[in-house]
Amino acid sequence: MSRIPSKPEILDWIAANPTLTAKRDIAKAFGIKGAARIDLKRLLRELEDEGHLEKRKKTYQDPDRLPPVSILQVLAPDSNGDLFARPLEWHGTGVEPVVLMITRASDPALGEGDRILARLTVVTAEDHNYEARMIRRVGSNPKKILGVFRKTAEGGRILPVDKGADKEWQVPSDATGGAKDGELVEAELAGPARMGLPRARVVERLGDPSAPKAVSLIAIRQHGIPDDFPDEVIAEADAMKPMGLKGREDLRDMPLVTIDPWDARDHDDACYAHADDDPTNEGGHIIWVAIADVAAYVTPGSALDREARKRGNSTYFPDRVVPMLPDRLSGDLCSLHEGVPRACIAVRMQIDAQGEKLSHKFVRGLMRSPASLNYEEVQAAIDGNPNDRCGPLLEPVLQPLYDAYAALVKARHLRQPLELDLPERQIVLEDDGTVSSVNFKERLDAHRLIEEFMVLANVAAAETLIAKKQPLLFRVHEEPSPEKLNALREIALEAGFPLAKGQVLKTAHLNNLLNAAAGSEDAELINISTLRSMMQAYYGPQNFGHFGLALRNYAHFTSPIRRYADLIVHRALVTAHGWGKDGLKPEDVERLEETGQHISDTERRSMVAERDTTDRYLASYLSERVGDEFTGRISGVAKFGAFVKLDDSGADGLVPIRTLGREFFHFDREAGTLMGADTGLTIGVGQRVTARLTEATPVTGGVALELLTIDGEKMPQGGSRSPAGRAPRRKAAKGKRKTDKIKRKVSRKRS
């Protein structure tokens, strides 16, 4: 009679023979024949019911063990340089196994995100359970999606949170990862489409998507922004100590104050000014700007440096910050807190009475700020209402800052940087993360003062490094292309505002246009069109100037806590002045162009993530007001509808073309307009509208609207096709011919 194996013996066989796990294979392995097969079938069913096995197409697999041949995803090297991998076929109930990669000289180089087929060996080690040897690479960085999981009889589907996505993803029953209906999940493409839908595998469950604080988390995951610091990075930061005076100039008695938003957690810039006592510079000023010496802590090639470069910059959301550096540095040692000594790199700048910089000098110092102030209290003090903190500083510190700023304003007026008038939105949250209000940020002279001081310091940094022939990353903003300028010029001329032609364009010409339009019904249109005509700024080792600021030499120096570009400039200053061994290394210089491209990309990534988060918060804020009416302007036109920017919140909503009436609307891509085939109604950028909110979806940030009026006229009810219904519209359209032509030109900018 055949001996029936024990349950542990069956599990051991399945683990060792992943390709021979059918009941027939198991019976053959243990010599089970005849009626004994019934007992084997019973044992396998018990193991399945107990969760030790899961049946897959007449074969069995131990869910708590990895098969000897598995698909793995390579992780980033740890602090010791060891390479680990994550098993993608893990379906166990315990802690996910840790797999150490054993690489051979013949293996190709592996990087984070690579997917490989590997042969596994079970080991007993302190930090890993398996060792893997690569068989072959099967792909890297699979396409991922963030969405809401909906359970179905076949497994589930994922509804993308990206409002631009048009397809759901299908999840097989063995790839749900235990996700529950309604959960926010991250999934990756797992195979070709079936029934028209791509197949996916859930890789992580992220919880309730409707939770207020999930809004920024969605953007972080969707755009791949690193939000967890590796252990070795935290360890490096935690081991740091405050810098002393050795090798530094003592600036601790200088009243360098920080002026930031009221809720700022870090303070990376401080300033001080006083009247120049040089008799040859009557009415002039001395301005000091001190910046946290991040380069002293984040040295080239360190784990901190690698992570900072990877992130490129900090990303700011209404409810959180994803910092470039760990809090031990960004919120402590590199933050110029009140009353504590802090390492800094400072620049002393001499300006004349007209605000022109006469000279400057950089020093590596140690400072101690007497006060950490916010914009509002500083402005209130200057306006005659000082609080207890600002009162003692008003005459000796704050007033001299404003006197120096007044001189810089004169120089700014002569230089004529671009002066766009585009208010910035501010989302105010309750403690639980819900939106309490949406405001437009107030611009104070205190804000402008700090901006002018920082611009001057950035210019000084660029000029010093150019003079010392030291490579660096410039902040580059090239002038608009001829095509964009011609389009803007046509818009301006149609609106009755001339824009100079036949000469080298300067920002002063654009400011003349903006000033001429100020106060008119086309002011917002001209501001938006001017902004859209601009090139996008970037970082690069070649100096092409900064068009928007009207500056020939410009580099970012003033925010090394939150921008890697500024850290590069700090290191360049260290090298140029011979201040220490923590300057710019030859290998850093060799890859400046690559670094510039990378951090330009991360900057754009953060901008998109921040914009998407704002859209989701605004949709959440508006979700309680469905059915209400709002005023706004047409902000864009596409073949599927029109976009409206609402006045009170700044939210952008879509008016689907199907809601515009029964008539057919022609989309003119060149003009950027929609025109009704029967009524002649033309919809283009800039038109004033009244709209009803029909839908607001916080998870995607989508807002849908229905147009009620456009340029003061009611929309056609039901898309009447009768002559009586058409004639007034055509007459109205003819009466607005010039305005519509202007708006078609403006709309062309968007397309």
TrEMBL record:
One of its GO terms (biological process) is mRNA catabolic process. GO terms for molecular function: exoribonuclease II activity; RNA binding. Its main location: cytoplasm. The keyword RNA-binding applies. Residues 727-751 have a biased composition (Basic residues). The keyword Nuclease applies. It catalyses: Exonucleolytic cleavage in the 3'- to 5'-direction to yield nucleoside 5'-phosphates. It is found in: Cytoplasm. 3'-5' exoribonuclease that releases 5'-nucleoside monophosphates and is involved in maturation of structured RNAs. This is Ribonuclease R. The gene is rnr.
